Amino acid sequence: MAQLDTRQKLAILADAAKYDASCASSGTSKRNSAGGKGVGSTEGMGICHAYAPDGRCISLLKILLTNSCIFDCHYCINRKSSNVRRARFTVSEVVDLTLNFYRRNYIEGLFLSSGIIGSSNYTMEQLVEIARQLREVHDFRGYIHLKTIPDADPELVRLAGLHADRVSINVELPTSRGLKRLAPEKDEGRIEGAMSHMNTAIIDGRDARKKYKSAPKFAPAGQSTQMIVGADAAKDGDIILKASSLYNRFSMRRVYYSAFSPIPDASAVLPLKSPPLMREHRLYQSDWLMRFYGFQPREVIAASEDGMLPLDIDPKLAWALKFRESFPVDVNRAPRDMLLRVPGLGTKAVGAILKSRRYRNLRLDDLGRLTQSIRKIRPFISCVGWQPTRLTDREDLKSLIVPKKEQLELFART
């Protein structure tokens, strides 16, 4: 491998890390270096920009330790047989980059992943050592997210949780069939076994903190994972069921979805085109329905057509149009779980409705002030002075709700 300087390595390894979507830094405990103690922070405004659920922009140094790899996964641009320029950081280079970028106020933390070099254990040792030096030698108090390796020794993975805010293990593909076909060197059982061990360690760490204040924090922001969408024949229904299983069995904080992107010198088993980015977006919306709106995975799948979510409308509207017998919902009497099923009503709007209706019966104009789009919710609700009558059952209801697409003019007159 030709000798590269740090700047050249950064250009290669930051670009190689762009395919990993799971870099949101929400959910960790708050730490800062106020008072002159330590270096770094997980708070405030701060590169890779991720957005937390509360809207904060999080700046992370997002890199790979190396893009060399002993595995030959078909979908990965860094696979062993790929003709890409290789680079590798040393432990001290990553530590110095992180500290120097933070001191310049470029970043608030580090997202570190790696190809497999030498062996899974050797690579995991390098990742843990970087996090250890940042925490113990330099007292770095910013955010650290480590990608762990399921084949590594469980003790090494456990050590990662002692130094990192969040750890993640990529499930890669939604079905075992797809994993065997596109990543034959990876094993679903080992991946899920590592997730299970990590979940147990996180729970044990939280229990220990409740009993002993001196107990060390263990991955306070939990664990996450990522699935590739569109690289195999898995349908949206398969992905939704897999995500639900991961949330229920391993207490995942987030499941991320990454649309497959065609790579140079691709294997013949891969599709020639990437899936529509809207498909990735619809899967995130379905994920939100299960996590925050009380939908069961089978209900979300029921709104699909042959296992695929519609691309032209969001999955909640698709469900409402398919199961119109559940509507209209009386906004002055309906429980929270039914209000959450009304298209156009988010969690904040439902909270405002529940709070406001304690003092008065709501009318349509009241809802207009509490929601963003009264047009979308009208066919699915009833309130004082408003009944949708036959509007809910109209065959052309979808066209009345969904705005017509218009071609924008580049030099339109104002």
UniProtKB/TrEMBL annotation:
Would you say which domain of life the source belongs to? Answer: Bacteria
Record-annotated Elp3/MiaA/NifB-like radical SAM core domain positions: 59-286
Q: Protein name, please?
A: DNA modification/repair radical SAM protein
